[in-house]
Amino acid sequence: MRVTDTSRTARLGTVAIGVALLIGCVSGTAVSSSGGAGGKGPGAHVKDRVLVFSKTAGFRHDSIPEGITAIRELGADHGFKVDTTENAGEFTTRNLARYDAVVFLSTTGDVLNRTQQRAFERYIEKGGGYVGVHAAADTEYDWPFYGGLAGAYFHSHPEIQPATVHVENHAHPGTAHLGENWERTDEWYNYRSNPRERAHVLATLDEASYTGGTMNGDHPIAWCQEYEGGRAFYTGGGHTKESYEEPAFLQHLAGGIKWATGAAQADCRPENGYRSLFDGTAESLADWKQAGPGTFDLNTDDGTITSSGGMGMLWYAGSEFASYSLKLDWRMAGDDNSGVFVGFPASDDPWSAVNNGYEVQIDATDAPDRTTGAVYTFQSADIKKRDRALNPPGEWNTYEIRIEGERLRIWLNGVKINDFTNTDPARSLRDGHFGIQNHGADDEVAFRDIRIKELPVRKSATADSAAVTTAPGN
């Protein structure tokens, strides 16, 4: 089997990389432009409401009016209502409860008094969303809660200039539309601290691509996190008026707002210590092998491989793994079928994975123990949690599959949805390979950014003593 490269530069050729795939086991007062705190899952019928707050007590950016106009237009395009204010008196418990997210649009200095701060803290603790844009990091230096929410405080900046933004996470709605590198012009902030240990970094600046970076080569510029019960998204872009006419930046901002309101889902837990096994290049597929019929098409423009034909399985042959956290991003085109196999021995027969390992299912519609998040035919996901965490077909999702001893746990977009313990010696999870499934001719599932973090191997039998969680709907 082969991986077909559909990049612009190689659309007529194919990359001769064996890729075989199988199975899926057969089968003032705020001004409104038209809420409630807390996120809502996909398909919510209540229209989200966002408050844009742009009060300044220090430097005032002349791009604020353009930012307000742009967010209003994004609201009209993406289905959320937008109110705007520079009146800190709007920060009351009762008023904030009307909103699913609050956007701090280039705020500066001390903009809220203690009573208003406490109301905003309660809002976040009850599940509210925060979006910080550019100078939101130059705000409330003496309020530790806000500093943690924003993720980092402003330190300095060089002159406005072009720079290369490296995208680390392509599954977040704020970055899913971007390629590996994003070239744009803005005023690039240096920060007083690096947010990486507490937030999930979405994009970083390449300090070699411009002058004036001071963060020693690890320079986050956009990130997200779950914080004190709420959601927080920050982007360092947005200084210039031109930013709010730039389609890629506007989509970046819209994705951040949608995630903060809960209209879209993503894994925003801190992510450190992972190494890439597939980074979107043909070279990174050198240690992958095929078993069975079908192909995966490689698109080096967007760094994806997409199932085509089947049934087969593309599996990582570089080494076996005994204890690890595997993360990968996946996207279904519609009602498609695929999965991730774990814990099977090396074999050119894809049925070896079926008979000796377990499949973490990807399937929009099937029985509870055979749909997304299930350990296929063995244990359903927690359906209520799964449904709240799941993005619909056409959008990216992230799996974390964590294996320690005989215990297999599954996170979907940062939410734990399954906890399964193997008791069958023939299917031991203590070592083995993993692979992604190519289910059939009518199934189209894309994958990107496959990475792994090896974990300490537990030596005690107590490692496997965790009880199996019986999910609702089994």
User: Kindly, what is the distance between the CA atoms of the first and last residues, rounded to a whole number of angstroms?
Assistant: 37 Å
Q: What level of helicity do the residues show? A: 10-25%
Largest sheet: 10 strands, mixed
SS elements, strand count: 26
Continuous helix count: 7
Q: Order of strands in the sheet with the most strands? A: 2-4-3-5-6-13-12-11-8-9
Which outline best applies?
A: elongated
Structural class: alpha+beta
Low-confidence stretches: 1-29, 34-45, 460-474
Report on the structure:
The protein has helices spanning 64-78, 93-96, 114-125, 144-150, 247-261, 351-356, 383-389, and strands at residues 3-5, 31-32, 48-53, 80-85, 101-105, 129-133, 154-156, 161-167, 181-186, 190-191, 200-205, 219-227, 230-235, 275-278, 288-291, 295-299, 304-308, 312-316, 324-332, 337-344, 358-363, 397-404, 407-412, 415-421, 433-438, 445-454. The model is unreliable at 1-29, 34-45 and 460-474 (pLDDT under 50). A ten-stranded mixed β-sheet has the order 2-4-3-5-6-13-12-11-8-9, sandwiched between helices. The protein has 474 residues and is α+β, with helices and mostly antiparallel strands. It contains seven helices and 26 strands.
Features:
9-stranded mixed β-sheet, 31% strand, 7 helices, elongated, disordered C terminus, disordered N terminus
Topology:
Layout: E1 3-5, E2 31-32, E3 48-53, H1 64-78, E4 80-85, H2 93-96, E5 101-105, H3 114-125, E6 129-133, H4 144-150, E7 154-156, E8 161-167, E9 181-186, E10 190-191, E11 200-205, E12 219-227, E13 230-235, H5 247-261, E14 275-278, E15 288-291, E16 295-299, E17 304-308, E18 312-316, E19 324-332, E20 337-344, H6 351-356, E21 358-363, H7 383-389, E22 397-404, E23 407-412, E24 415-421, E25 433-438, E26 445-454
Parallel strand pairs: 1-16, 3-4, 3-5, 5-6, 6-13
Antiparallel strand pairs: 2-4, 7-10, 8-9, 8-11, 11-12, 12-13, 14-26, 15-18, 16-17, 17-26, 18-25, 19-22, 19-26, 20-21, 20-25, 22-23, 23-24
